[in-house]
Amino acid sequence: VQLQASGGGLVQAGGSLRLSCAASGRTFTSYTIGWFRQAPGKEREFVATVSFNSFGGENIYYADSVKGRFTLSRDSAKRTVDLQMNSLQSEDTALYYCAGSVLTGVTSPNSFGSWGQGTQVTVSS
Questions:
Q1: Three-state SS letters, 51-107
Q2: What pLDDT is recorded for position 1?
Q3: Contact 59/105 with Cβ under 8 angstroms?
Q4: Contact by Cβ (8 Å): 9, 17
Q5: What pLDDT sits at residue 26?
């Protein structure tokens, strides 16, 4: 699967942004798609992931730091996975990446083999 992230920008603290990850490839629906971020001088960290479960539903996981503020949604028809980010804080400033994994229920960046280019999110205080 090939992935392309977009939607980053500069926003004031307390504001909102919506990131979008566009996927190409016929196996999109079988992939776990995740959002990760990397701030300067820090390691890449998990933000949120979505994968289909065996019952035909979706499992969505969020990092504790973004729970209640970020919402991930997948549109299989459009082949997009969006990340709605509300109540943004300066600590959310980072380069955000979307990534794909053939594994289910994973959140570690090491489990993701397909990466798009990053999109910068900068939150000013």
A1: EECCCCCEEEEECCCCCCCEEEEEECCCCEEEEEECCCCHHHCEEEEEEEECCCCCC
A2: 84
A3: yes
A4: yes
A5: 66
